[in-house]
Specification:
By secondary structure, this protein is α/β, with parallel strands linked by helices. The chain is built from six helices and seven strands; from the N terminus they run ααβαβαββαβαββ. α1 packs antiparallel against α2 (about 40-75) and α5 packs across α6 (about 200-210). The longest helix has about 35 residues, at about 40-75. The model is unreliable at about 1-5 (pLDDT under 50).
């Protein structure tokens, strides 16, 4: 299944649009300050904030897609797996996984559908994207919280998350989301979490839950969310 092309016929929106709005407000404030203040500091500030916005924008419209294509190629799916995407949003990870499945495989996306997480965050948009990508026949969408998945035990061969558990509010709820991910995973199945922050805790929780081959690694500059202070880290594990 390696080398699957990215059709990108769909529209995936912008991740964390409120962050970009904040950078834009900061740039505007610095520029206005520069009109009444001597010295280069406001202009330097505006430039730095604009650079942060550009890095974030690159990650959300290009970087994350390239990284996930590589990650899914590394997983070498057979094509008949049942795959779960936690917090699927408009389907960037979900549909990339679905493209690697054949008639025997299913890609299920679960999301609470909150617009603060992603621009145009709506189940209807994700359905349209699945149609545009030609994978609607193997995609299912569910509404639910990641800390309380509306799914049966031992249902999936692969559980994915693309910066979704990060958006769950509260350490206890995030711990429940990790536990739920393990609960719905079949023996022998794999968890692949690309997250911003708390990844040491996630790895520790997976180990405590009896998962094996627990690993962490950085995903590089293509998945920086505004800069190196907000990197994406990959956590992987297998269920014995």
């Amino acid at each position: 299944m390696a080398g699957v092309s990215v059709r990108r016929a769909a529209s995936y929106g912008i991740d964390a649009p409120i962050v970009l709005a904040g950078f834009g407000f900061g740039v505007l404030t610095c520029l206005l300050t520069a009109t009444v203040t001597d010295g280069p500091v406001p202009l330097v500030g505006a430039g730095l904030l604009a650079l942060c916005a550009l890095v974030h924008l690159h990650t959300t419209v290009r970087g994350k897609f390239a990284v996930w294509e590589e990650l899914l190629d590394e997983l070498r799916p057979r094509g008949d797996e049942d795959v779960l995407d936690l917090g699927c949003g408009r389907g960037s990870v979900l549909l990339a996984a679905a493209r690697r499945l054949d008639v025997g495989g299913t890609a299920v996306g679960v999301d609470p559908w909150r617009s603060l997480d992603q621009a145009g965050h709506d189940i209807g948009a994700t359905k349209e994207n699945a149609l545009a990508e030609g994978v609607a026949d193997r995609v299912q969408l569910r509404t639910g919280e990641l800390a309380r998945l509306p799914l049966l035990d031992d249902s999936f061969d692969l559980v994915l998350s693309g910066v979704a558990i990060t958006t769950v509010a509260g350490a206890d709820a995030r711990a429940l989301a990790i536990r739920e991910a393990v609960r719905v995973l079949r023996p022998g199945g794999r968890i692949v979490l690309a997250e911003v922050g708390h990844t040491r805790q996630y790895a520790a929780a997976l180990t405590e839950l009896g998962m094996t081959q627990v690993r962490r690694r950085g995903l590089g500059w293509r998945m920086w969310w505004s800069g190196p202070w907000a990197p994406t880290t990959l956590v992987t594990a297998r269920k014995p």
